[in-house]
Design a protein that fits this description.
Blueprint lengths: L1 H22 L15 E3 L2 E3 L5 E2 L2 E4 L3 H6 L5 H9 L4 E6 L1 H7 L1 H17 L3 E6 L2 E3 L4 E2 L8 H15 L5 E5 L3 E2 L11 H18 L4 E5 L1 H4 L16 E3 L12 H7 L9 E3 L21 H13 L2 E5 L19 H13 L5
Parallel strand pairs: 4-5, 4-14, 5-6, 6-9, 7-10, 9-11, 11-12, 12-13, 13-14
Antiparallel strand pairs: 1-2, 2-3, 7-8
Helix pairs in contact: 4-5, 6-7
Amino acid sequence: MIAQSIAPLVLVFLLLAFVNSFAQAPAENSETASLPLIKVHGNQFVGPDGQVVIFRGVSFSDPDRLEKVGQWNKAYFQAAADWNANIVRFPVHPRAWRERGVENYLKLLDQGIKWASELGLYVIIDWHSIGNLRTELFQHPMYDTSFRETMKFWKIIADRYKGNSVVAFYEVFNEPTAYGGQLGRLDWAQHKSIMEDIIHLIYAHDRTVIPLVGGLNWAYDLSYVLSDPIAQPGIAYVSHPYPQKREAPWEEKWEADFGAIADRYPIVATEFGFMSADGPGAHIPVIGDTTYGEAIIDYFNQKGISWTAWVFDPLWSPQLIENWQFTPTLQGRFFKRKLMELNKGRK
């Protein structure tokens, strides 16, 4: 009698599990073949035919912000494509992730990945925190997170977008910094161990993606990598070489701080940029002309470094656009011209 009463319940649970397996399936895996799958080969990114790919594009602002101001739409992506970008970056702030809620935020990402796919744009998903993940102290409340939340975020993302060739990169943690000790101790060995743990988790769910690991000093300094690289295969590194990091002339210092790494591993400069004298935003020094821009792009070209300029937004700085008609700023005009020149095969 007991066995007979249990059997229907077992069937019900099996049916629910079967239904849930479809409900939880990656939302955009129908798009997985829309762009060639990118892999790491030596110090380069390559497509299925072995052809070397250099990514050049723009970093968006947070999809949550863009949706709130009515700009998370295909026209926004079309504007980036019209600049001849071949990649865009989605910075996901931990506070926005929590406040919007996981399912609602994933809907934004699903939409964005679909638009990117339709326009031939690859995607970087970036966990956009700034601070010390070891001590769980951060530079501003918008960046507050925890190791557990970070691991859960990447588990959810890797489960959802595994095998999706459009989502080529996961930027594991935006800008690691101890803020001169104000956020506690953080050396390379400590940071490296945390990144390796997160990548191990990502790879348990998604083996086709390329994890991106930033250096110390707000993701600028990768000099430690030469003697102590991340002990995970198939990754690439990140530097954010804003002009205030070093005084001009920059090139010799860039070579020591991150450029020499590009001779061994792929690098993506996922943030960098400059301001005009009348541009709003105090945290980026005024350059006033394109001297820095010319120098950094020339250096990237010499080293085969990929990049996404910061930021495709008229409010966050340094701005690439002046308004939602996508009128370029000084740096916007410069980077748009470089995208047109360098991504020649895109159009």
